[in-house]
Fold this sequence. Notes:
With about 140 residues, the protein is mainly alpha-helical. The chain folds into two domains: about 10-55; about 70-135. About 70% of the residues lie in helices and about 0% in strands. It is globular, with a radius of gyration of 19 Å. The model has no long low-confidence stretch (mean pLDDT about 85).
Amino acid sequence: MSDYLPTRRATDAERLDATLHLTDALARGALSGEEYNDRIEDVNSAQSIDQITATLIDLPPLLPATTASEKRKRDELREWLREWQYWLGGSVLMVGIWGVQSLMDGSAIKFWPGLPIGIWALVLIACVFWPSEEHESS
């Protein structure tokens, strides 16, 4: 018999949790900006939970959220990061379509994805400065 034990595939939720852990470590000074970026790339490309764990093993544990407000902020950050993942996926898709169009045309055509990608990014950045309806009522 083989000693090989397959590892469990990582989920998007686990990648997002690891991203939050890395962001916390950066904010607490445990990581430099360059190391943070490298580890974020590693987490996003990780296929197994072991690969994600390897990026976090030497970091201090997350501080527990002690108040409802801290929990809400963490949930908001998680949602905002998820929106950026959608932005990245949409950007890759639009640039891919542009690339195929350019190949079919025989030369690079006007880079039209820049406009929707830029507007989408501005909307996501603006979300940081405008409170959601949920917070206006509380």
